[in-house]
Design brief:
The structure is a single chain. The longest helix is centred in the N-terminal third of the chain and has 22 residues. The chain is of the alpha+beta class and 280 residues long. It has a 5-stranded antiparallel β-sheet. The protein has a 4-stranded antiparallel β-sheet with strand order 2-7-4-5.
Length: 280
């Protein structure tokens, strides 16, 4: 009975830690392991920042004509006109993907979100403690152990870091993310008590993208969630996410991810458990 009680108590602590992490902006911590031939991994467009930790060889991240290599990479927002970043997974590659709210990303990095685009920067240049975290995480032998350790260490850092200002730009990103890009620029400006010109100015100044492009990213992310939730066809995905038609969705895939929906599913099939091969 005591053993069962201790197990239940530990489960409650684990749940409480995860909830505390989410409240502070640590939205997702996911351990992944690739074994096999080298392959391309395409990052999904998002209005959140990311910390990518590689536990084996440093990984190369390519974004447009820029390529950086690092053991850990801080990844910011995409910029208009450049398809999302790609990463080449090596034959043995253990990786931790952390998704952070824009506010938590700024707080952790200690710099404005505008300074980081989707190509990322070597995290060692901004996070003095990242090397020790990589080494500590590499000693964990299970996905759960790696995720729990990284979540706890980041939670520790965020609770002690100076609080980031809740700027209009960060609020705008969160509003767009919550409605899958369903707010027009005039409506978004009205909710923030700004003119449209002021909204465009503060977002460009603070985060490097404007409301129209941010809404485009949010709508595309919503389409991917619709596909993951079991939409029967790409046409149904397009309709549910507010695209004109399937060809419009395919066009956005090409622009934002540099590939087609079908090719992306083929590339990521090992990482997309539960996804079906959607019909046209």
């Amino acid at each position: 009975m005591r053993s069962a009680h201790r197990g239940w108590a530990w489960h409650n602590v684990e749940v409480d830690t995860e909830r505390a992490a989410i409240r502070l902006g640590i939205q997702t911590v996911k351990s992944s392991e690739h074994a096999g031939e080298p392959r391309i991994h395409r990052a999904l467009p998002s209005l959140r920042g990311r910390l990518v930790i590689n536990l084996d060889e440093p990984v190369a991240v390519t974004y447009g004509d820029q390529t950086i290599t690092g053991q850990a990479v801080l990844v910011g927002l995409m910029r208009p006109g450049v398809a999302g970043p790609t990463m080449t997974l090596q034959p043995v590659q253990r990786t931790i993907y952390v998704e952070l709210s824009a506010a938590a990303f700024q707080q952790l990095a200690g710099a404005p979100l505008k300074e980081f685009d989707a190509g990322g920067v070597d995290a060692a240049s901004a996070l003095r403690w990242i090397t020790s975290l990589v080494a500590e995480t590499a000693e964990q032998t299970t996905h759960w152990g790696r995720e729990e350790l990284v979540r706890n260490r980041l939670l520790h850092r965020l609770t002690r870091a100076p609080q980031a200002d809740r700027s209009d730009s960060l609020i705008a990103l969160e509003l767009l993310r919550q409605c899958d890009g369903g707010l027009s620029t005039p409506e978004l400006a009205r909710r923030l008590h700004l003119s449209e010109r002021q909204l465009r100015h503060v977002m460009a100044r603070d985060i490097g993208v404007g409301p129209k492009f941010a809404a485009r990213i949010a709508r595309f992310s919503g389409a991917l969630r619709s596909a993951a939730a079991g939409a029967p066809t790409w046409s149904a995905v397009a309709a549910s996410a507010g695209f004109y038609d399937q060809s419009h969705l395919v066009e956005q895939f090409q622009a934002l991810m540099g590939t087609t929906p079908t090719q992306w599913l083929l590339e990521e099939r090992r990482n997309l458990q539960g996804w079906r091969h959607l019909a046209g």
